[in-house]
Amino acid sequence: MRAPSFWQNAPDAPGWQAKVLSPLGAIYAAATARRIRQAPDYTPRCPVICIGNINAGGTGKTPTVIALIERLRPMNVHVVSRGHGGRETGPIRVNERTHKATDVGDEPLLIAAFAPTWIAKDRAEGVQAAEEDGAEIILLDDGFQNPSVAKSLSIVVVDAALGFGNGRVLPAGPLREPVEQGLKRADILLSIGDEKSQAKFAKGWGNQIAVPHVTARLQTLETGINWKGQRVMAFAGIGYPEKFFATLRGLGAELLRAEALTDHQPLTEPLMKRLEIEALALSAQLVTTEKDAVRLPQSFRQKVLTLPVRLKFDDDTHLAAALSRLS
After folding, report:
1. How far is CA 327 from the centre of its chain?
2. Are residues 211 and 263 in the same domain?
3. What number is the average pLDDT over the span 205-228?
4. Does residue 157 contact residue 190 with C-beta atoms inside 8 Å?
């Protein structure tokens, strides 16, 4: 399901759809507020860093988690995730060699290549399992609106290009809770995007940011592939596939076709066979994201190129200071 276009209207011009749905948004916001006022079910023995968002959908949490894993080494960092899209409810430690995305979710499967990763529908149980396994610090992937675990540090991640949309709560807008309410609980706001997007975000939302604001951008990882002039057919089932397609164009690839899938969409054999046939007809190479690649059927792993990205912080002074207080 793609996000409705009216979610991205300016906050001062929300459009009739948002106005009609605003009463439902108020109910959703009230329910969220009641939930987050609850006392934590569990206070961990080690620090817990929550990487969450106010927006529903993808904002860049997974690359943020991977970047923090790298920053926190050599500490024994574990990650706890709900495992969206997987069958297992946990708590279970993800094994990237034996588990499939249908078992544990695509994001945990990707993250497990970087650090011990747990999935647990009950986050408190997941955190306890990580502690028992020797975790010295835990990254809570999502869960900003979940009060079950006491958090040592909460980082709210936002896509700088999209910002907080029209500033309204689901279903009137893209938010899980009002911006002001969410940022009151945040320790750091991390906006991800290029310079132009960051300037747009600062202009639209800067006056509402009362917490330390860190900026970062996604950079493609050097893999030795020369994308310039490469004829490609790209597909992506992430929050905003258009960003992936724009990245390929920016690298000089000749993007002959772009297939935007729904977030976490299963990459079935029939779907991949159709994409393969279309790519062959165009004399194009199939390309996808790292998160999508872990959902590929085994028979397509060697047929599809992956474009990995990593998060690069601009000025991380606030982040470094916050992390140093936990170590």
Report:
1. 25
2. no
3. 95
4. yes
Lookup: tokens for 89: 């409810």
How many domains does one find in the chain? Answer: 2
Whole-number average pLDDT of the chain:
94
Q: What sign results for the dihedral spanned by CA atoms 15, 18, 22, 26?
A: negative
Residue 68 falls inside a structural domain: yes
For the chain, give the number of residues. Answer: 327
129-164 pLDDT tens trace: 999 999 999 999 999 999 999 999 999 999 999 999
Are 199 and 241 part of one and the same domain?
A: no
DSSP 88: -
Residue 112 bridge partners (DSSP): none
DSSP 104: H
Phi, psi of 91 (to 5 degrees): -75, 135
Helix (H/G/I), strand (E/B), else coil: 215: strand
Q: Tell me how far apart the alpha carbons of residues 159 and 105 are, in angstroms, rounded to a whole number.
A: 22
The verdict on 161 and 107 lying in the same domain is: yes
